[in-house]
């Protein structure tokens, strides 16, 4: 006798249920303590529950409030959590825009898979965000203030109550929107001053990601353990850790952003824009990284005007390669990029590493 597999509901953002709040919150002013707190959210949030037995439930846009999870919840003990970081911008034409949201949707699904959390059709994410912004957009990103943006944090947690170590049987996807300080309006000294961003190369005793691990996924489990190094770097005046990997000390990425260097190739003397590759799954495939690569390949590989052509390369390189290039005066610039740290506007960087 064949049994019929139960059909699990797919995520369907088109049937979202909306509950509006009546006690609207004050919208914080740019530069206010609320905005700088990175914790003050807009009036509403999106939540979508999932169970292994029934699949995705009806998505909801509802008043922002604290979540309730059992103290035994999977995410609190086993880090069954993944997230995304995006921004929604008010354009000068009055429209709201997301930057390549399908890339974030795809990455969220890939991260969820790595953490045994449920999948969904990635383009549902942008539909859910659009619903949230239909409601919170007009007040939180006023039309007369073009250029403003909100930081969006979609996240998924295993919130089931089973303390035994097992794949999550319940999950919650939620999306919150957070007023965020504009990095382009930071005082120069706060953005690294005239020296640019200062990166401290990691010590061999601390590794962010390794082959077969999950460095390529945006999992909370990647970040908590990196905070000791980050704190130490900040305590001695650096902005971020530049994560190295392996005995040859390959340069991977910096903090929660991807790292690029422009140098003259040692053998050919040609200008190269170099960043770590994706194949070994050590680094997070940044949407900004991908955009920088695509734009550079499209526009910089032929000489234009006074600009010499630049070869765009994703390859492994080591901190010794960087040292050598520096000594030989071949480095043109270096920068990091990521949604939270830049509006695709790279900062110049300064790198320091102990010769281990
Ligand atoms: C989020 C993140 C990035 C940048 O990704 P974007 O999609 O460009 O914002 C880079 N590295 C790490 C470790 C990250 O978490």
From TrEMBL:
GO terms for biological process: L-leucine biosynthetic process; L-valine biosynthetic process. The keyword Isomerase does not apply. The modification N6-(pyridoxal phosphate)lysine is found at residue 218. Pfam families: Aminotran_4. It comes from Aspergillus heteromorphus CBS 117.55. Belongs to the class-IV pyridoxal-phosphate-dependent aminotransferase family. GO terms for cellular component: mitochondrion. Keywords: Amino-acid biosynthesis, Aminotransferase, Branched-chain amino acid biosynthesis, Pyridoxal phosphate, Transferase. It comes from the Eukaryota. Transmembrane segments: none annotated. This is Branched-chain-amino-acid aminotransferase. Its EC number is 2.6.1.42. It catalyses: L-isoleucine + 2-oxoglutarate = (S)-3-methyl-2-oxopentanoate + L-glutamate; L-valine + 2-oxoglutarate = 3-methyl-2-oxobutanoate + L-glutamate; L-leucine + 2-oxoglutarate = 4-methyl-2-oxopentanoate + L-glutamate. The lineage of its organism: Eukaryota, Fungi, Dikarya, Ascomycota, Pezizomycotina. Its cofactor is pyridoxal 5'-phosphate. One of its GO terms (molecular function) is L-leucine-2-oxoglutarate transaminase activity.
């Amino acid at each position: 006798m064949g049994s019929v597999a139960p059909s699990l509901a797919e995520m369907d953002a088109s049937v979202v249920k909306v509950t509006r709040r009546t006690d609207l919150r004050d919208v914080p002013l740019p530069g206010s303590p609320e905005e700088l707190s990175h914790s003050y959210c807009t009036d509403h949030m999106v939540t979508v529950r999932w169970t292994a037995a029934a699949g995705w439930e009806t998505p909801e846009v509802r008043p922002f409030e604290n979540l309730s999870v059992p103290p035994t919840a999977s995410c609190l003990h086993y880090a069954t959590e993944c997230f995304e970081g995006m921004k929604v911008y008010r354009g000068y034409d009055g429209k709201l825009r997301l930057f390549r949201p399908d890339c974030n949707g795809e990455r969220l699904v890939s991260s969820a898979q790595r953490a045994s959390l449920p999948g969904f059709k990635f383009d549902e994410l942008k539909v859910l965000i659009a619903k949230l912004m239909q409601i919170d957009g007009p007040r939180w990103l006023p039309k007369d203030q073009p250029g403003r943006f909100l930081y969006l944090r979609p996240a998924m947690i295993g919130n089931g109550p089973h303390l035994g170590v097992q794949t999550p049987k319940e999950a919650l996807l939620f999306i919150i929107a957070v007023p965020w300080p504009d990095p382009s309006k930071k005082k120069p000294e706060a953005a690294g001053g005239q020296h640019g961003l200062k990166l401290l190369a990691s010590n061999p005793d601390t590794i962010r990601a390794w082959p077969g691990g999950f460095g390529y996924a945006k999992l909370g489990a990647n970040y908590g353990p990196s905070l000791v190094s980050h704190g130490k770097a900040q305590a001695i005046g650096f902005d971020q850790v530049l994560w190295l990997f392996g005995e040859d000390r390959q340069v991977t990425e910096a903090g929660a952003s991807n790292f690029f260097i422009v140098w003259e190739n040692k053998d050919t003397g040609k200008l190269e824009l170099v960043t770590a590759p994706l194949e070994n799954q050590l680094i997070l495939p940044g949407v900004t990284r991908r955009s920088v690569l695509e734009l550079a390949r499209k526009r910089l590989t032929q000489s234009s005007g006074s600009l010499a052509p630049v070869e765009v390369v994703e390859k492994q390189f080591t901190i010794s390669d960087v040292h050598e290039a520096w000594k030989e005066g071949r480095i043109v610039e270096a920068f990091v990029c990521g949604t939270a740290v830049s509006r695709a506007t790279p900062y110049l960087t300064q790198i320091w590493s102990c010769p281990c």
